[in-house]
């Protein structure tokens, strides 16, 4: 270890419901937008779906045993909304709630803290059919679902994350069409982003009724810089930063809607979905901020896809991410630059004076992992990536940023959304035809890193 993390620092691993659970038609679960999207030809690599995934619904006890072997302090997982509240309306589904009951108890029996994410992209399809996140009532439905989940699990679960990566849900789901529900819209994507933030605020109100609950939200954020000092590149980087970061950090952390967003998007929306009283709800104080980060962003100005501003989608910003061809990239094509995580954490501290404590709730890399003839899976690039990014976290802590934990993405190889099963992020290799789990070299490295942290003298 070249850098040290403070005593009491939390180490964890993370997963998401649709990516690992499978059993999409069992126990009363109804279809989500990802069931519909993945079953639509051409939407995912090789037509892959989450129908079986890692079969975690049936193999959860085996996966909890892996977490115990790994030695993590906490496990971040998400609840499937259509498993708990089929069709996004009405009372809770007993069978679905029973599944998460067993999982939570299994974690606690092994001394692992459950950290529950309420929404990791699997909106009930029936709610999308009614308008999805484009409409305000979905945010209100989300608050009701939160109430159902908390009523069953809140006596044991104290750490709650309202949303995971609302930028992806809105901009990839309703802007580029790359993710479910697969729309390419301007006003719709912006309304979705706003209503996701509102849903977060309304869910926070529900959770605050429990004075023992700790409430946060997870945002995927990037440090953004222009490729050159040319005015057009600087302006492009400002638009990119607005869209990727400020669209959520400003409302949630500062109670304001970005001025640049109003200026940039005025041709595609009248912002009529915004109500005066909403920002006070959205910006309710948090106990922590979850930060997901995988790579930094270097931006140059390019021509807009649509010359007519009124016809643009919310992601048509006249920007382009430049990846240095000489630099290292992951299997999925993302650049590797650990110091980007340090810069992001410092940027958050310097930009938001009332910033709550931070947990890095996702960080990891895809590798082209294979089973060797001796049955092992060696992934030295992932080991190096994790070490360098943990060092970057330690550097941010040394610079005064209040970072209290790190969750590796992911415990298991899994269904990687539109990329299907070809991208492997796990500490544990999953042989999908047999569902055999094989801990990789990185699993052992992370286990040893956690053990070493616990031997660190009290700071």
UniProtKB/TrEMBL annotation:
Reaction catalysed by this enzyme: Hydrolysis of terminal, non-reducing beta-D-glucosyl residues with release of beta-D-glucose
EC number: 3.2.1.21
Pfam families named among the record's database cross-references: Glyco_hydro_1
Active site (catalytic residues): 362 (nucleophile)
Record-level Gene Ontology MF annotations: beta-glucosidase activity
Annotated SUPFAM superfamilies: (Trans)glycosidases
InterPro entries: GH (IPR017853), GH_1_N_CS (IPR033132), Glyco_hydro_1 (IPR001360), Glyco_hydro_1_AS (IPR018120), Glyco_hydro_1_beta-glucosidase (IPR017736)
Homology family: Belongs to the glycosyl hydrolase 1 family.
Protein's name according to its UniProt entry: Beta-glucosidase
Taxonomic path: Bacteria, Bacillati, Actinomycetota, Actinomycetes, Micrococcales
